[in-house]
Amino acid sequence: MRSASERPESEPAASVSPSSAPAPTSDADARAFSELIRSELAFVWRVLRRAGLSSADADDATQQVFLVASRRREALARGKERSFLYGTALRIAANLRRGLSRRREAPESAAPAAASAVPLADEVFERRRARELLDELLSQLPEELSRVLVLSEIEGLTLAAIAELEGIPSGTAASRLRRARAAFRELLQAHRDRNPFAGSLP
Amino acid sequence: MKLDPLAELEAKLFAAAREEQPDAQLLQRVLRASREAGASALAAGSSAAPPAPKRRARVASSGLGWLLAAAALVAAGVLVWLRPLGSPGELAISAERAPRRSEPGEPSVSPSPSPPALSAPTPAVTAAPSTPAERTSPVPAVQPEAPERARPHAGRATAAPPREVSASNEAPVAPATLATEIGLLEQAREALRQGDAARAASLLDGYDAAHGTALTAEATLLRIEVLSAQGRSEQARALAQRFVAENPNSPLADRARRLSEAGAGAAGVSP
């Protein structure tokens, strides 16, 4: 609804992109696109991961995102590359989630309990468990809250950047982020209550 | 003071996610795939300088537009006359640079008067204001490239079709499907750009038939535009509104909204 319509970036793209041919790629264009891939790949991949895709699925989806982008370069050349990639990533993630049975690296439901019960062998494993718990909790948040939380806490983006990516006003982004933090805290607290040993380790 | 253990745990979770990085090979894989896709776009779109879409609005409102329309009438008349001879160029003309929404009042006029340099052995009179029946025309589900497409520029007649997206690499998530999806949408977009809304609609039907999943939003937006180009503004608007309602936060929602408005504007002109 709403404020998305105020977003300026899609003004020109709206009328042009669907009906224009795939941009022919010059060398400079190709180089610029490669740079874009290099600079945004990790961001896109993490967004996909936190959108609920397994690591392998996120790999594939990342490739899809950039393939779509490469086919829509004309829509990218407006300084809004990240917005485009972000939106594409979310759509692809949603479609993949719908189409695939969600395959995570570990069964989500078992993750929190296992986290408290299984001694962690090393740091890597510990981080992995942390991410599993994080994903578990994020999946319980409404999507729009989960997204802003990820953008803020994991990607370290400012409210303005979050608002732009989400296509919402900064005020809305701020209030969503507030609610997201509060809701996440509650979920975390509930998790700890259920898993008393989870205080030090996820 | 005691550190809030919950905050500590929370920080740990977020930090773990921040540190997560994709496999180093993914970068190479994506670079390679995009290079291949770029090469295919270059092959297919080398003549892409697309004058049609932008010209459309202007042509309709200018004096030159009337001139062109008159010339088109003549050309169309000649075509209709020649049709029994089975001139293969007739559809080519209609698909060529046709202002894609000039059809409402004048069914066979939409084609521009440009020379029938290209051929497309497709059913005749597709340029007529499309009807629902036309839209649901049979579609080769996944292989829509069957007939050679009319292309806007003669020099491009030999260009490779844009659908071999070579997105194929090791992606286990049905790379062929993705390539097919991209190919279908690409062709639909191209058909629309050339003014052949009916063909674009057919290709989109093909997309649906192929159960495309990765690019459904793109496909929907294209469908909105096709409907609108076909003068089916009500349906375009309804679809756009549904899209916006279902994807309010999508960066594409804006475009859907605008397409819907454009459709509303065009509705006044439509029959």
Cα distance spanning the termini of chain B: 76 Å
Radius of gyration of chain A: 19 Å
Order of helices and strands of chain B: HHHHHHHHHHH
Radius of gyration of chain B: 23 Å
Question: Tell me, what's the shape of chain B?
Answer: flat
Mean pLDDT across residues of chain B:
57
Query: On the 0-100 scale, what is the average pLDDT of chain A?
Result: 77
How many strands in all of chain B? 0
Report the structural category of chain B.
mainly alpha
- Multimerization status: heterodimer
CA-based shape of chain A: globular
Note the run of SSEs of chain A as H and E.
Answer: HHHHHHHHHH
The total count of helices of chain A amounts to 10
Summarize the structure.
The complex is a heterodimer of chains A (202) and B (271). Chain A is mainly alpha-helical and 202 residues long. Chain A has helices at 10-16, 27-50, 55-71, 73-76, 81-99, 110-117, 123-140, 143-154, 159-166, 170-194.
Description:
The complex is a heterodimer of chains A (202) and B (271). Chain A has ten helices and no strands. With 202 residues, chain A is an all-alpha fold. In chain A, helix 2 (27-50) packs across helix 5 (81-99) and helix 3 (55-71) crosses helix 5 (81-99). Chain A starts with 9 loop residues before the first helix and ends in an 8-residue tail after the last helix. Chain B has helices at residues 5-19, 24-45, 52-61, 63-82, 89-95, 132-135, 175-193, 197-209, 216-229, 233-246, 253-267. The interface between A and B is large, with 86 and 75 residues.
